[in-house]
Amino acid sequence: MIPQSFIQDLLNRVDIVDVVGKYVQLKKGGANYMGLCPFHNEKSPSFTVSPTKQFYHCFGCGAHGTAISFLIEYSGVGFVDAVKDLAQGVGMTVPDNDDRLPPAQRAEQQAKTLALSEAMTLACDYYRKQLRQDERAKNYLKGRGLTGEVAARYGMGFAPDSWDGLRTVFPDYDVEALVESGLVIDRSDEDEGARGGRKRYDRFRDRIMFPIRNTKGQVIGFGGRVLDKGEPKYLNSPETPLFQKGSELYGLFEARQAIRDAGYVLVTEGYMDVVALAQLGFPQAVATLGTACTPIHVQKLLRQTDHVIFSFDGDGAGRRAARRALEASLPFAGDNKTIKFLFLPSEHDPDSFIREQGANAFEKQVQDAMPLSQFLLKEAVGDNDLNTPEGRARAQFDAKPLLQALPASALRLQIVRGLAQITDSTPAEIEALFELAQPVARTRVAPPRAKRAAPMGLERQIMRLLVAHPLLVDEFDPASLDAVMQLAPDHADMLAQLVTMCREMGEAARFAVLAEALREVSSDYDAIIAEIAADTESEADVVRLELRGAIRQVRLQSIKAEMEQVASGGLSDEVSKNRYRELMMLQDQLKRQAQAEIVGRG
């Protein structure tokens, strides 16, 4: 787990304007920067980035957060990867409790990774240059209906028919990074004869090149397609320290904005499917890299959108691929996710279908794709005869591992009910027979605990000022904190937590740092944070006076209540009389402070 102190230091070093500005065109507008929101489709800018708050906020869709939140939402990376990315940009190293490598060895690993990344970038530039110069390769792409614009968007290139074409880019052709990155194959002496005496040669030759990018846009691998006939038809980079096929998706970097605009992602089977779909008006497509869909793939997709559609050919291979995608998706299927399966006629892929039937027909296919629940039951039934006890039992047997992989949810209950209906059982019997975790059908669900009301009035004003300006925590002496907590007993824990966190952060406390920390501990502060994000900047001195005034009002209310309580006893003894006098003096002192501040401001 990354220490909170590191997150705090990181957010105080990065500039959110620089971070967001890499992805969104920003223009200065008053104290803030403005741009078109990357999280929803808009024509006039409603997205603001505050250099003072180190926070972004969209007045259109309500998206808001810190530099870390932006990378998570925009790039679809996890929290740790977002932190590492930001840390790298400001020269910080993320502490890792599991990393037992000596510093020298870790530095060596980082240098090796950098060398591999630079080799891939140089190779990509070389392949792109070769495509611009090779008429045969350009004619092939034109014949497939691709324009130069789409080829450029995906960074497509061409590897010429040369054993060592990369030698023109890497004068030291024997450098180890070329082999470790998968760009070059190094053969042992006994294999030299088969390659005309060459020990080293380019892996990709006479192929259209598809660079594979990670979520940062860095080239980590390649896919190469033969121009004419030849085997293999597609050749992929091998697994390397940069590239693991089971973790990456082709086209995801390029498709991120299109996925948000379309509201769904279309998962296809190959590189050419992706670029062809982009050419034909469906740029929200990605592809697995010659391997079955994995849970990591599904997780990455669901970070981008709640609606995933897998597209497969209708033949046997397509059905098998769909089954693997189903199994990979089950742990993540829930009530707020939509996962569907699109099966095209066996004679078509997406490219040929659209060219023959048109974009509207393909859009209709997408809309009519089979929901996960229907596909799961279809897979369970298979060829089983549901008119016999044996067939129904076998369908239940085949459905068991699929249902066990699903999290307990309303969706799982609906599928259980569907299976119970077609196999002549009850949902409770299915759950008991399958030993499903947290049974839904036969458990009386307790009514949800009422969520406590949001803080209101003075208590909300005080919390809001403290979240926006955490350095003002020094205004809370014990008497002030006690008075505010008495005013709002239902939210005393929130205030105590807030004050403690601000004090622990010390002089480094800032709104963005505090907001990121609060996001980790509770959602109770979300509404206040959103309100601050949307508010205009305030002068620090004015805010301090506002907080003092609010605390003073709370203390005056507390003093007045105690005076009434003491007076109700008749002031019959010296103790009560002395306490009443003390309270009056405190009340007068607070009123004089208020008057002095009014005069000072005048």
UniProtKB/TrEMBL annotation:
<dbReference type="Pfam" id="PF08278">
    <property type="entry name" value="DnaG_DnaB_bind"/>
</dbReference>
<dbReference type="Pfam" id="PF10410">
    <property type="entry name" value="DnaB_bind"/>
</dbReference>
<comment type="subunit">
    <text>Monomer. Interacts with DnaB.</text>
</comment>
<keyword id="KW-0479">Metal-binding</keyword>
<dbReference type="InterPro" id="IPR019475">
    <property type="entry name" value="DNA_primase_DnaB-bd"/>
</dbReference>
<keyword id="KW-0460">Magnesium</keyword>
<dbReference type="InterPro" id="IPR037068">
    <property type="entry name" value="DNA_primase_core_N_sf"/>
</dbReference>
<comment type="function">
    <text>RNA polymerase that catalyzes the synthesis of short RNA molecules used as primers for DNA polymerase during DNA replication.</text>
</comment>
<keyword id="KW-0639">Primosome</keyword>
<keyword id="KW-0240">DNA-directed RNA polymerase</keyword>
<keyword id="KW-0863">Zinc-finger</keyword>
<keyword id="KW-0238">DNA-binding</keyword>
<dbReference type="InterPro" id="IPR016136">
    <property type="entry name" value="DNA_helicase_N/primase_C"/>
</dbReference>
<dbReference type="InterPro" id="IPR006295">
    <property type="entry name" value="DNA_primase_DnaG"/>
</dbReference>
<feature type="domain" description="Toprim">
    <location>
        <begin position="263"/>
        <end position="345"/>
    </location>
</feature>
<feature type="zinc finger region" description="CHC2-type">
    <location>
        <begin position="37"/>
        <end position="61"/>
    </location>
</feature>
<dbReference type="InterPro" id="IPR036977">
    <property type="entry name" value="DNA_primase_Znf_CHC2"/>
</dbReference>
<keyword id="KW-0804">Transcription</keyword>
<dbReference type="InterPro" id="IPR034151">
    <property type="entry name" value="TOPRIM_DnaG_bac"/>
</dbReference>
<dbReference type="InterPro" id="IPR050219">
    <property type="entry name" value="DnaG_primase"/>
</dbReference>
<dbReference type="InterPro" id="IPR030846">
    <property type="entry name" value="DnaG_bac"/>
</dbReference>
<dbReference type="Pfam" id="PF08275">
    <property type="entry name" value="DNAG_N"/>
</dbReference>
<dbReference type="GO" id="GO:0003677">
    <property type="term" value="F:DNA binding"/>
</dbReference>
<dbReference type="GO" id="GO:0005737">
    <property type="term" value="C:cytoplasm"/>
</dbReference>
<dbReference type="GO" id="GO:0008270">
    <property type="term" value="F:zinc ion binding"/>
</dbReference>
<dbReference type="InterPro" id="IPR013264">
    <property type="entry name" value="DNAG_N"/>
</dbReference>
<dbReference type="Pfam" id="PF01807">
    <property type="entry name" value="Zn_ribbon_DnaG"/>
</dbReference>
<dbReference type="GO" id="GO:0003899">
    <property type="term" value="F:DNA-directed RNA polymerase activity"/>
</dbReference>
<keyword id="KW-0862">Zinc</keyword>
<dbReference type="GO" id="GO:0006269">
    <property type="term" value="P:DNA replication, synthesis of primer"/>
</dbReference>
<dbReference type="Pfam" id="PF13155">
    <property type="entry name" value="Toprim_2"/>
</dbReference>
<dbReference type="InterPro" id="IPR013173">
    <property type="entry name" value="DNA_primase_DnaG_DnaB-bd_dom"/>
</dbReference>
<keyword id="KW-0548">Nucleotidyltransferase</keyword>
<keyword id="KW-0808">Transferase</keyword>
<dbReference type="InterPro" id="IPR006171">
    <property type="entry name" value="TOPRIM_dom"/>
</dbReference>
<keyword id="KW-0235">DNA replication</keyword>
<dbReference type="GO" id="GO:1990077">
    <property type="term" value="C:primosome complex"/>
</dbReference>
<comment type="similarity">
    <text>Belongs to the DnaG primase family.</text>
</comment>
<dbReference type="InterPro" id="IPR002694">
    <property type="entry name" value="Znf_CHC2"/>
</dbReference>
<protein>
    <recommendedName>
        <fullName>DNA primase</fullName>
        <ecNumber>2.7.7.101</ecNumber>
    </recommendedName>
</protein>
<dbReference type="GO" id="GO:0000428">
    <property type="term" value="C:DNA-directed RNA polymerase complex"/>
</dbReference>
